[in-house]
# Entry
Amino acid sequence: MKQLFQQRNLLLIGFIALKFILQYFLISPEYELHRDEFLHLDQAHHLAWGYRSVPPLTSLFSGLIFLLGGSMFWVKFFPALFGALTLLIVWKCIEQLKGNLFALCLGATGVLISALLRLNMLYQPNSFDVLCWTGVYFMLISYFNTENRKWLYYAAIIFALGFLNKYNIIFLLAGLLPAILLGKERKLLLKRDFYFSVLLGLLLIFPNLLWQYQNDFPVFAHMKELAETQLVNVNRLDFLKDQMLFFTGSIFTIIAGLIALLIYDPYRKFRFLFWAMLFTLSIFLMLKAKAYYAIGLYPIYIALGAVYLSHILSKNRLKSLQAIALALPILFFIPLYKLAFPNKSPEYIVQNPKHYQETGQLRWEDGKNHALPQDYADMLGWKELAKKTDSLYSLVSDTDQTLVLCDNYGQAGAINYYSKKGIRAVSFNADYLYWFDLEQSYSNLIRIKEFDEIETELKTSSPYFNKSSLADSITNQYAREYRTKIYVFSGARIDINKRIHNEIERVKKY
# Structure
């Protein structure tokens, strides 16, 4: 027994080590940080109980990253860690369901070789979101398996952390509640500990709810903007097709888990999870959600399916299928390795676009096809932008009176992260709207402007300054920011601070 325990622990450590190794080797060094990563990192310098774009938890992780040095290694470490912890929870779930060594390996392989490799590449709330979805489901399985009330409180804590990380976890609750009400599990609503655990969760998320109230619920403005600019381009059929791609090599395991919830007697007490998946996917479809919002659904079903398959394939005449079941995720991963990760240079992708286009990777949020996948284009040109902004910043007299104003959060965040001059760029976009220092008086402006063929910025702003020029632009043709312009205006003839204040109020109202 001791030897088996040690063997399992060594295997678990091996899977976790492999997870970290893969995450660091799936990105070509030609790529920089992603535009979203810059925003989340900058939140560490503006700690609050909420933000226009996301809840507050990511800012704490960002603060820890900067305490550790703020290098790209640590930026990539945390999403890899959250992915490794997701794998750990699936492993522990299989152990609790009395899965054997084969089940453990099947579950771990299914989680490891999956879309999580892509998701865990980027420092965004999504990796922790999937971890929390998996954690809540595991805690509920543990509760209904043991009826130990501690699991309800753990579930409440994990849900609250998930809520403070990304509001997407509300859809987990929206799918779970009707699923529980449909079955015998609804007796949970008669338990005093259920309401105490709910109260605990509400207490943990209350500071963020209060912040939302005090700031006129900016989350609704963010959701409205998201619906109008991105979700409007979402195709429901594409949403369903993408679900098949997230865990391609483990589809049979997930399906086995769903079937087992209906026919496998030891899973009778977990049957609500079958309906939870149907309800949650239906809600996502109705709201035209992005496909990756649903990724958190699947890891726990891999655990359920792995244990059920280990029971089915334990029979002598089926044992030979165990090796095939373990090999399938790896076999499916081989073609994905060549296409689904930024491990090829931009030049290679542009010269070999066929398979990228066929798999829909060249289709951006605007609904159009482009030269590179959007995430890849979002990881280029940032160092160039920061270096050129630094150079121009040094040439402007009275730098302490110089405002660096960007069109979007990616530009502002990249300059702030890569700048050697300590620049604190801002924007009227996303959370930067709240980060202007209006106590500082400005007389100069460095304006970072998205590509505009007729250069309206120079025409409209020049009359308000003594000197104005188009100083530089982004030359990386593969970057999403290609041809972004850098303007320099000096010697203001107007009250810049007043105009900034008026624009902030206008954007907030919108």
Observations:
- Residues 72-96 form the longest helix (25 residues).
- The mean pLDDT is 90.
- The first strand starts at residue 402 and ends at 406.
- The beta strands are 402-406, 426-427, 444-449, 465-473, 485-492.
